[in-house]
TrEMBL record, chain B:
Protein name, per record: ABC transporter permease
GO cellular component: plasma membrane
Bias type Polar residues, positions: 1-20
InterPro entries in the record: BP-dependent_transpt_permease, MetI-like, MetI-like_sf
From TrEMBL, chain C:
Protein name: ABC transporter permease
Stored Pfam families: BPD_transp_1, BPD_transp_1_N
GO cellular component: plasma membrane
SUPFAM superfamilies named in the record: MetI-like
Membrane topology: Multi-pass membrane protein
Organism of this sequence: Nesterenkonia natronophila
Taxonomic superkingdom: Bacteria
GO molecular function list: dipeptide transmembrane transporter activity
Regions crossing the membrane: 9-30, 99-122, 142-164, 176-198, 246-266, 278-299
From TrEMBL, chain D:
Residue ranges of domain Solute-binding protein family in the record: 100-428
GO MF entry, a single one: peptide transmembrane transporter activity
InterPro entries with a match to the protein in the record: Peptide/Ni-bd, SBP_5, SBP_5_dom
Assigned GO CC terms: ATP-binding cassette (ABC) transporter complex; periplasmic space
Annotated keywords: Signal
Native source organism of the sequence: Nesterenkonia natronophila
One Pfam short name: SBP_bac_5
Keyword Signal: yes
Signal peptide location: 1-32
GO biological process per UniProt: peptide transport
Name of the protein in question: ABC transporter substrate-binding protein
PROSITE patterns per UniProt: PROKAR_LIPOPROTEIN (PS51257)
């Protein structure tokens, strides 16, 4: 790729980048949102959206390796100037791509088998018995019972399975180059691990080269040999995995590595962020830790002394344990169950058991983390804790009084004492309301003057300029919106703060700032924090205690470090092992 | 407070989601085109309140069906009335019917839609069943029976057409409200102890404002067409109030010998309806197309 | 799957029952005395009262309702006040005519809408794309009776190719086609334009979907991707809209039947209302309501066939 | 054969709309191009009689008013009997083209000196279409059944006391009091002869003795007759008649232009007659009708009760422009309640000629200034057109009129005739000799004059035409003087016929439309 520039009308988004991918090489393209990494990938395959135009030159075919004599004309094809017919011939055959969102990438109205056989028939119309080729492809991506799966529709498969079908589809004709645009971002950690291994295996087996786009350093280090780091449409650094991750030259790379592995400032215990003062000489983590494969993460120091918590594991034969038992807890939960779906009188009743009996306490001032993959029941649990949903059975007491079965009128006190922060910065703020109205929403009885004063106070506390009060959500970045959401949650000075995947949707660099903000506010307001996430590292940093959930039950709970360092329950072990982390240099 | 808590404003523009450039605000040419046509009709109605070239009700049997001339810019109709003034004055009735229909349609449709969405489990289901029944009564059918029952009048036309519009509005508002309620800011409001009324006024209405405006413009267009059809069946606004529909009906008997008497009102109706439809389309593109739940 | 269909049919039956209640009591309040309307200007009071008894118009509403509703579903819809002959055959004949007209209308509408809508969507950023969508906009703004009048003026009076009105049953073959051509065209033009707009929107929406990008990444050219993957997905919303359009078409038929003098449900209804023929009005309105609900039911049952996501795994 | 359309007709006819629209004919023109427009309905070649008439031809005639059913003994309105009387049903006597009473099923008759006994000698060898014999018993059965009628003013023959059978073919009708009009009413629907066993399904079938047999009636669409081959009189001129009902006047006009029908009766497409007259294939025949379009003024209204006010309104209305608006100038302006075909007709148009200033003076003399009236208008084209002109005329003399359209017949009949809740109202009374209703104070006109009632009785007791005519003339003079209503115009009876169609009745006499002498020639 030479001098690739992508612009939307007059505005340049990618400013003349150059790089090469040799045959069979696996290259990672890393950058935060807005860095132009996806635009680069899409210009290679020529599927840029209508408003965007790409200039420069992308040669595809034989890169002049040392072996070919200098004089011979490289018979490669310039993808940017190729016409639709030429591009159509090589897409899916010699050049293929896997996209990020598995749920919408397959045609919902066509059977999976047909969509797979289509890519074969387009490029190799005369292949005999395509049906067997499809079954073979499906089993090559470890999909059980391929014959039956081929007749199934996409909506009947899980996210992981669909992504594996996409992979099979991309690799069907043994492409020279596979493009992967954040293929596993939407997947759970354990599923992600399996898909990544599969991808590496397939690419090596077919001898094709790989361009892997992601914002997650850990994932890249698992998959690629070489890495290119992009920021604001420019390449800031590139090189082998080992060299870049152990001796980053560019400051942005250093900060990115620190932020993504949640490194903390040795003295303040706060996470290093992009704006950590430059003078501070970043000492690379000592070699040994990196070698041991465990990122050096030290939990920030909790404010007041915490009660001694024993490390309990759910084992089949013993009675269902009550985890994290504490006397006079902020929150007390006993045998909580919740089932969805109508069990209809006639015909099969289809019910889903979201929670199958959960009992635990949360001490006052404690930072209680809940970890689990999608479908383990953690968001249902949160809804029940905040009385936005009623349990099928079981008791919940907040600060001593029960909140189950109470009508909204009797829950006024709960609304003031417990508040919520959501995951999606886009969806948690009403686009049509000003920041002042948003933040002041929980404040019921107050004059206009008091509300304005309180809003300004909160804005300052979450590190936003007072001038933000009059603006609207679309004028802010993801990180800033999450700060507004936190300000709203603190409007009534609650005792308990519930964070539902509060940082999962943020870029790595912004994530550190928000986590630091949360730690400070928890100390300042002596909050009891219930922090839910699918990312074990984040929970380990921010929480004193962590509970691991699976299939509607808590399987293990205890102090964060001990659960992470020596997981008892096999599932927890699998979770910890599945975390992608920076490993030794490429083979 | 150490300064590193202060956020550094990394990117000013809203983040680009992986390569998909945020959609440009389309639809402006449609809004301009629709807007001009609609304002043309509004100006005609307002002007006709004060002035018309001739008295629209003055009959002059001697020179009936006269072709366009200096005094009668567009000629005269079967009773010798000046067509230009009638087209001007005739714009008032369809606009009134349009306004009335949209008003009735919205006052019934919007609350039903919101309540049905908010009580989606329980009463909402039955409310929507009732809505289906109302939708099964085509508006014009209702208008014909009501007009015949209480005598043709603008009021019966508006009630019938309003009742006809309401179920459509209710259905669209319900799906819009369901979308808003599923968003996290609604959950946050409920968690902040806010009741359904607050949710409806502060969160639902502002966010479905786009759909409402599109439904209003479509409703206006349908009402104008229906008023013309009703008058054509002799059940619309009674004489002597000039209305385009009546002019079309009167013109039908002289179609062979004086086609212009029917073409002018026909064009007027077409311009008005085209105007509202273009405006509706343009506004739909202007507001977030993602909320495009008008289907 | 079957269970779901049964539930829907149950809801349909309930809706029809409630609709019949609404229809009957709405018309019960109709002022203007049917007996007086029959006997005309000169009839004396006793004669009117005698006819009223004979027609049973003065019996309490619930009694008349039961008699009518039980009759309705056994085909005997009672005797019309005006024509004194059973309502059933008359309504069914009129129904058959209107159904044929509406099916003709839908045929024309679909023939216009699909090509126009798809072309408008596919080339929506190029000048001829805006021309197509402009054409469909124009089609919507012309009242269908005006279109009818113009078609008569051109094709029957001026060119003399087609009759200006009247009706021939299908058995009359070519004559039937010649009589249905203009009315179906007038009906189809307007509704075709509406359908074209929905088709355009649906195709535009589908073209933005991720699986279309996957299709392109597989090596399909834009046209092939649209045909193989896009159109079927665009079909789902269009089919739903067609059921709503069907109700509009029935009503459009009322006006068209008056312009083309076709003895369908529409013109029969208008005459029945003028004669205060209560039983006839009730039966026709019920027929229309049942027709609309039936179409909605059929579309509801058809949708899972097109969209597997709606098939609840039994 | 019927005239066929060719492309040349398009340019030669030169109607402005046709020319400009044909050129911009829409691209998506319907199927079925090709100039020749096959005649609908089978048309087997019949032998042509001397004057080229084809006695086996069929004729299709466009009609306007739609019969609700076939039983004119219980269904009001002229639509039913105008089609069936003289064609399927026959009475003892009939009215000829000039309105004179002629023999029909009664060969001859005598009236006793006191005018209370009528003796009829009946035609022999007459059978109903279902074969029943026609004799004195049929006459006795039919006339005595009159009190079972509930429509078409059976009380007009209330005077009939008894019917005696003298022998098989002679019968005497005794009246309780002399009634000169009796024979006139017997010539109408009231005199129709019915066979006893076909009286039950009168609404759906028709069994008479007339020149045509009833075939079928598709409600509100078409009615079909076939020639009665063993008719007692001279057979009908055509083999079959099809009456096609067009509720919309211009649709009928289009039909005759495109060969859909051969003729149209009672057409109200007034605005198109000019263009029809220009075309030589279609003949426009303007006859007179029995109709009286009258604007009645409610005597209970305190202003309208004063004679000067009623006279002022009468003078303020420009009847010429009213008729021009309503019927494009076709028809006769009326001064009084009688129509030109009535034997006692006098032209009163001069008494209250159009003079707005005189009308204004009359109003001032009655010191009535800001008078405001409601005007109930049935939703019929002629009524709405007339009302809008009248409203404009009356506003010239400061009378503010608000129009109130009411759906005809149901709402208009209820509001005006039953409840008499109106200031002004307007309607076209189509029944013949409708001015007789001025004898009844409870009729919606509310005219209560002792003197008028005496004159009515005097006319009824008349024994010969002159005596009857002179008392009726005296009566009309009185009515015109009192002006209970403003008689506007007598609408025309306009018939359209394509080339070769002849024998259609010119005038509408308020009885049956006799189609027996209609013929179609090449």
């Amino acid at each position: 790729m030479e001098n690739l520039t992508v612009s939307a009308g007059s505005e340049e988004l990618v400013h003349g980048i150059n790089f090469e991918i040799r045959r069979g090489e696996r290259v990672g393209l890393i950058g935060e949102s807005g860095s132009g990494k996806s635009l680069t990938c899409l210009s290679v395959i020529g599927l840029l959206d209508r408003g965007l135009s790409a200039t420069g030159r992308i040669t595809f075919g034989s890169v002049p390796t040392a072996a070919t004599t200098a004089g011979s004309e490289p018979e490669g094809l310039d993808l940017l100037t190729a016409d639709e017919n030429e591009l159509a011939r090589i897409r899916g055959d010699r050049l293929s791509m896997v996209f990020q969102e598995p749920m919408t990438a397959l045609n919902p109205l066509m059977k999976v088998g047909d969509q797979l056989s289509e890519v074969i028939r387009i490029h190799r119309p005369k292949t005999p018995n395509v049906r067997d080729k499809v079954d073979e492809l499906l089993s090559s991506v470890q999909i059980p019972d391929p014959a039956r799966t081929a007749t199934v529709y996409p909506h009947q498969m899980s996210g992981g399975q669909r992504q594996r079908v996409m992979l099979a589809m991309a690799m069907a004709n043994g492409p020279d180059l596979l493009l992967a645009d954040e293929p596993t971002t939407a997947l759970d950690v354990t599923v992600q691990k399996r898909v990544l291994n599969l991808m590496v295996h397939q690419v090596q087996h077919a001898g094709s080269s790989l361009l892997f786009i992601t914002h997650d350093l850990g994932v890249v280090s698992e998959v690629c040999d070489r890495v290119i780091i992009m920021r604001h449409g420019r390449i800031v650094e590139s090189g082998s995995i080992h060299r870049v991750f152990t001796a980053p030259e560019h400051p942005y790379t250093r900060a990115l590595i620190a932020a993504s592995s949640l490194e903390t400032h040795p003295t303040t215990g706060r996470l290093l962020t992009l704006d950590t003062p430059k003078d501070f000489e970043h000492s690379p983590p000592d070699h040994s830790d990196a070698a041991a494969g465990l990122p050096v993460v030290s939990a920030s120091v909790p404010a007041e002394p915490q009660p001694e918590i024993e490390h309990l594991t759910l084992c089949a034969e013993s009675a269902p344990a009550v985890f994290n038992t504490v006397d006079s807890p902020a929150i007390r939960v006993r045998d909580l169950t919740r089932t969805y779906g109508k069990n209809r009188v006639f015909g099969k009743s289809r019910t889903v058991q979201a929670l199958r009996g959960v009992s635990f306490d949360v001490a006052r001032g404690q930072r209680f983390g809940i970890v689990g993959e999608s479908g383990c029941g953690k968001s249902t649990l949160l809804r029940l804790l905040t009385a936005l949903d009623q349990p099928t059975s079981g008791r919940i007491e907040v600060a001593g009084n029960s909140i189950v079965g109470r009508s909204e009128r009797h829950l006024r006190w709960l609304r003031d004492s417990m508040q919520l922060v959501f995951q999606d910065p886009m969806g948690s703020l009403d686009p049509r309301m000003s920041v002042t109205d948003i933040i002041a929403e929980p404040i019921h009885r107050a004059s206009r003057q008091e509300r304005r004063f309180r809003v300004e106070e909160l804005l300052e506390q979450v590190g936003l300029p007072i001038s933000a009060a009059g603006k609207y959500p679309h004028e802010f970045s993801g990180g800033q919106r999450q700060r507004i959401a936190i300000a709203r949650a603190l409007a009534t000075r609650p005792q308990i703060l519930i964070a539902d995947e509060a940082v999962s949707a943020l870029d790595v660099s912004v994530r550190a700032q928000v986590l630091n903000l949360l730690d400070d506010l928890v100390k300042e307001y002596q909050l009891t924090l219930v922090f839910v996430s699918h990312d074990l590292n984040v929970v380990r940093h921010s929480c004193d205690v962590v509970a691991v959930m699976k299939g509607g039950r808590i399987v293990e709970c205890g102090p964060a470090d001990s659960v992470m360092a020596s997981p008892d329950h096999p599932y927890t072990a699998e979770l910890v092992a599945a975390i992608p982390h920076v490993r030794e240099g490429a083979p | 407070m150490s300064n590193d808590r202060a956020a550094s404003v990394t990117t000013s523009r809203p983040p680009l989601t992986n390569g998909q450039h945020v959609r440009r605000r389309g639809g402006t040419p449609l809004v301009i085109a629709g807007g001009t046509l609609v304002s043309l009709v509004l100006v005609m109605a307002i002007v006709s309140l004060m002035w018309t070239p001739q008295d629209p009700t003055a009959t002059d049997a001697v020179n009936r069906l006269a072709s366009p001339s200096a005094t009668h810019w567009l000629g005269t109709d079967g009773l010798g009335r000046d067509i230009a003034s009638m087209v001007l004055a005739g714009s008032r009735v369809p606009l009134m019917v349009g306004l009335g229909t949209v008003a009735v349609g919205f006052t019934i449709g919007v609350p039903i839609g919101i309540v049905a969405a908010m009580t989606d489990r329980g009463a909402g289901m039955w409310l929507m069943r009732g809505n289906d029944i109302l939708q099964a009564f085509p508006a014009l059918l209702l208008a014909i029976v009501l007009a015949a029952v209480f005598g043709p009048s603008t009021l019966t036309a508006v009630t019938a057409l309003g009742l006809g519009l309401a179920p459509g509005v209710a259905r669209v508002v319900r799906s819009g409200t369901l979308q808003v309620l599923s968003r996290e800011y609604s959950l946050a409001a409920r968690a902040a102890g806010r009741g359904p009324l607050y949710l409806a006024v502060r969160h639902v209405l502002p966010n479905i404002r786009g759909i409402l405006i599109v439904q209003a413009s479509v409703g206006f267009a349908i009402a104008i067409l229906a008023e013309a059809a009703l008058s054509f069946l002799g059940l619309g606004t009674p004489p002597p109030a000039a209305s385009w529909g009546r002019m079309l009906q009167d013109g039908q008997s002289v179609l062979q010998i004086a086609p212009l008497t029917i073409l002018w009102p026909g064009m007027a109706v077409a311009v008005a309806v085209l105007g509202f439809n273009l405006l509706g389309d343009g506004l739909r593109d202007r507001f977030d197309p993602r909320m495009d739940v008008t289907r | 799957m079957l269970l779901n269909a049964l539930r829907r049919v149950g809801v349909f039956a309930l809706t029809v029952f409630v609709a019949s209640l609404v229809v009957f009591f709405l018309l019960g309040v109709l002022p203007g005395d049917p007996a007086r309307a029959q006997l005309g200007l000169q009839a004396s009071e006793e004669q009117v009262q005698a006819l009223r008894e004979q027609l049973g118009v003065d019996r309490p509403l619930p009694v008349r309702y039961l008699e009518w509703i039980t009759g309705f579903f056994t085909g005997d819809m009672g005797v019309s006040y005006a024509s004194r002959s059973p309502v059933g055959p008359q309504v069914l004949d009129a129904l058959q005519v209107t159904l044929l007209l509406v099916l003709g209308g839908i045929g024309v509408a679909v023939l216009i809408a699909l090509p126009l809508g798809i072309l408008a969507a596919v080339r929506h950023h190029r000048p001829d794309g805006t021309l197509f969508s402009g054409l469909s906009q124009l089609g919507i703004s012309i009242p269908n009776f005006l279109a009818g009048l113009l078609l008569i003026a051109v094709f029957s009076v001026a060119l003399g190719w087609l009759p200006s009105g009247g009706w021939q049953p299908p058995v009359a073959g070519v004559d039937f086609l010649r009589h249905i051509a203009l009315p179906a065209l007038a009906l189809g033009l307007v509704n075709g334009a509406i359908l074209a707009r929905y088709t355009r929107a649906a195709v535009l929406e589908v073209m933005r979907e991720d699986f279309m990008r996957t299709a392109r990444a597989k090596g399909l050219k834009p046209g092939a991707a649209l045909v193989r993957h896009g159109l079927r997905n665009a079909l789902v919303p269009v089919v739903t809209v067609t059921s709503i359009e069907f109700a509009n078409l029935i009503i459009g038929a009322v006006v068209i039947e008056t312009v083309f003098v076709i003895p369908g449900l529409g013109s029969t209804l208008i005459r029945a209302v003028a004669n205060r023929d209560l039983i006839m009005i009730q039966s026709i309105v019920m027929c229309v309501v049942i027709l609309v609900l039936l179409v909605n039911l059929l579309v509801d049952l058809l949708r899972p066939v097109i969209d597997p996501r709606l098939r609840i795994a039994s | 054969m019927k005239e066929t359309h060719t492309m040349k007709k398009l340019f030669q006819s030169g109607t402005p709309l046709a020319a400009c629209l044909a050129v911009s004919a829409l691209a998506l023109s319907a199927c079925g191009a090709g100039g020749d427009d096959p005649v609908n309905g089978e048309d087997e070649g019949g032998e042509a009689t001397s004057t080229g008439e084809n006695s086996d031809a069929n004729i299709s005639i466009g009609m306007f008013a739609v019969p609700a059913n076939l039983d004119f003994t219980t269904t009001g309105g002229a639509a039913v009997f105008e089609a069936l009387l003289y064609n399927v049903y026959e009475g003892l006597v009939q009215l000829d083209a000039e309105g004179e009473i002629q023999p029909l099923l009664a060969e001859s008759w005598e009236i006793s000196d006191d005018g209370q006994e009528f003796t009829f000698q009946l035609q022999e060898g007459v059978t109903f279409h279902d074969g029943t014999e026609f004799d004195a018993d049929i006459v006795k059965f039919s006339l005595e059944r009159l009190d079972e009628w509930s429509a078409n003013t059976p009380e007009a023959l209330a005077a009939i006391d008894s019917v005696e059978i003298v022998d098989d073919y002679e019968v005497t009708v005794a009246l309780s009091e002399p009634d000169y009009n009796a024979l006139f009413w017997l010539a109408g629907p009231l005199g129709a002869m019915f066979s006893p066993d076909s009286v039950d399904d009168l609404a759906t079938d028709a069994n008479g003795t007339g020149p045509f047999e009833f075939v079928t009636y598709e409600n509100a669409v078409r009615m079909e007759f076939a020639r009665n081959d063993d008719y007692w009189g001279d057979p009908a001129g055509v083999a079959g008649v099809e009456l096609v009902y067009y509720e919309d006047a211009s649709a009928a006009a289009n039909a005759i232009r495109t060969g859909g029908v051969d003729a149209i009766l009672r057409s109200e497409a007034f605005d198109q007659f000019e263009s029809f007259e220009a075309e030589e294939e279609i003949e426009v025949r303007v006859g007179s009708s029995q109709g009286v379009v009258v604007m009645s003024m409610n005597p209970d209204h305190e202003a309208l009760a004063q004679d000067e006010v009623r006279e002022a309104l009468h003078r303020a209305i420009d009847k010429e422009s009213v008729m021009a608006a309503a019927t494009a100038g076709y028809g006769e302006i009326l001064g009084g309640p009688s129509v030109p075909t009535d034997p006692y007709y006098i032209d009163f148009t001069g008494t209250y000629d159009y003079d707005p200033d005189a009308a204004q003076d009359l109003l001032d003399s009655a010191d009535v200034d800001d008078l405001s009236l409601t005007f109930n208008v049935p939703n019929r084209a002629y009524a709405e057109a007339s009302a809008q002109v009248i409203q404009d005329n009356l506003s010239e003399i400061g009378v503010d009129v608000t129009l109130q359209t009411q759906e005809f017949p149901a709402v208009w009949v209820e509001e005006n005739m039953v409840n008499q809740d109106f200031d002004l109202t307007i309607i076209n009374h189509v029944e013949p000799r409708n001015m007789n209703n001025y004898a009844f104070p409870e009729y919606y006109w509310g005219y209560d004059s002792e003197e008028a009632r005496d004159l009515f009785a005097e006319a009824a007791a008349a024994t010969d035409d002159d005596e009857y005519a002179s008392s009726m003339e005296e009566l009309t003079e009185l009515l015109v003087e009192d002006t209970p209503g403003v008689w506007l115009y007598n609408p025309p009876n306009v018939g359209l016929a394509t080339e070769g169609v002849s024998g259609l009745p010119l005038n509408d006499l308020g009885v049956g439309i006799d189609l027996s002498d209609v013929t179609v020639s090449e």
